[in-house]
Specification:
single chain; mainly beta; UDP N-Acetylglucosamine Acyltransferase, domain 1; five-stranded parallel beta sheet; 1 helix; globular
Length: about 110
């Protein structure tokens, strides 16, 4: 799934062309960012798809798919699949977690 996401994002019609400004954030194309996302103090990309209304703070995400309504705080993720409505805090690894999951690895 992660590899397919990267291939699709390389095609112009799948990546977001106009990305809104996010505070203290670097976006490395290609990425697809859903409507209503809040991203701050983060590095996103390349090859990242983020669902709508996701919140990402103080994180680095590359080669990953992040579901809608998910919250990531203080994480470094690569090659990860995060389901919708999930919460992940304080991780530096590759994760595959399903919908409606909460993980706090900062303790």
């Amino acid at each position: 799934m992660i590899e397919t996401n990267a291939i699709l994002l390389e095609k112009v019609e799948f990546a977001s062309e106009e990305i809104p400004f996010f505070d203290n954030t670097i976006i490395i194309h290609p990425v697809s960012i859903g409507e209503g996302c809040e991203i701050e103090n983060s590095i996103i990309g390349p090859h990242v798809t983020i669902g709508e209304k996701a919140i990402i703070k103080s994180s680095m995400v590359r080669d990953s798919i992040i579901g809608s309504y998910s919250v990531l705080e203080k994480v470094v993720l690569h090659s990860s699949l995060i389901g919708s409505d999930a919460f992940v805090c304080g991780a530096s690894q590759s994760l595959n977690i399903g919908d409606n999951t909460e993980i706090n690895l900062s303790k």
